[in-house]
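hey can u check if this looks right to u? its 441 residues, i copy pasted from the old doc so theres a chance i mangled smth
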Amino acid sequence: MPRPTTRACYISFRQMGTPNFPTASSVNTESNDLLEKVRVLSKRGHVQEALSLFYTQTQHHHQTYATLFHACARHRCLQQGISLHRHMLSHNPTSPPDLFVTNHLINMYCKCGYLAYAHCLFDEMPHRNLVSWTALISGYAQHGRADDCFSLFSGMLVDFRPNEFAVASVLSSCHSDGERGRQVHALALKLSLDACVYVANALITMYSYSKSSFGCYDTDEAWSLFKTMQARNLISWNSMVAGFQFRGLGVQAVNLFTQMQREGIGFDRVTLLSVFSSFSGSNIGKEVDDVSLKFCFQLHCLTIKTGFISEIEVTTALVKSYSDLGGDIGNCYRVFMETNTCYRDIVSWTTIITALAERDPEEALFLFRQLRREDLAPDWFNLSFRERPYDIDGSQVDTDENGRPCFCSIAKDAGFLDKELAASGFLLEGYGQVYFEVLYG
């Protein structure tokens, strides 16, 4: 057999002995491909699928971690976020987390309510930037920690100039403290941040819900800010409508909603809830009953046309509006019955029972029994309105012997009849001795 030549041996050695090591460019390409796939899955809400794909890879880029932490924050996937955090620490035991990644970590823990742990991460950071401060300030604001939010904001001012998001966040926590809100407003004016739509919206809400040093609401200040805004978005309009509604200025709320429609602003669920709520707790119904009822009917048609009638919050607000304006109780009942039974909650049941209690007591009793059959536990409001159909002698309902014992047995099964309830005098006017017979008999 002929021996291979020297050249042939050399070529064979090169072909067999050259290792196929991954190059830096190929590793970067794989990391970028993984990052892009994770981004697509996260945007579509497939967080678990994105995490599963991530865990199958060996090379992990810090930006991929940040993307996944952001997805966990957005979808409130706390346990998945904690597992990802542990994975990151175990695969990088010596190097501290990147500033960019740590900011996303703080944001995730804040969004999911782990404020103490978020603050620990914040304190352990060797370097912080404006995003670090803003993420923690926003977390405290979103969870109603007004004092912590304001204290942290004050500490940030030592080293950083706040941006519009930090200012808007701290303003949202000043609803119960108008003086703090005015201080932040003054700072926003000094830094020329008051023209930013986020800050302006937060200022409108703050002045609508907070009281001045004289103990009165600053709706006029909120309205002045709204009128001077150079650029408004839907949140601006919603904030002002909700401000009028909160102050019991139903006419102004309805008029502003009408202006929104004339100017083609549009509306959303929040707008409708504020307008419907403006019919309650204000003098709008007393001033113009027929006009208000007609407007409520027009809103009803609008919710059907736009599809908002399918949302249980809107339906419940509509039923309450018809009831408060003295509308046809049949409309209330029809709207409730057309609601998908899967979406009915205790609030919607309470609303319709309350509406029927004084006008159709027998139907109210029927719905209360139906509420029990739906395996929904009645609350104090259900029970308090449940006794309204009866006078002291039970003359409003023919079946007195069925009505009173039925209610008492239901209430006893629900756990509401106890000595504490008896001491409060609840239902004594409506039931008197029957109550004590069921409780102690």
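Residues 121 and 131 are 14 Å apart (CA to CA).
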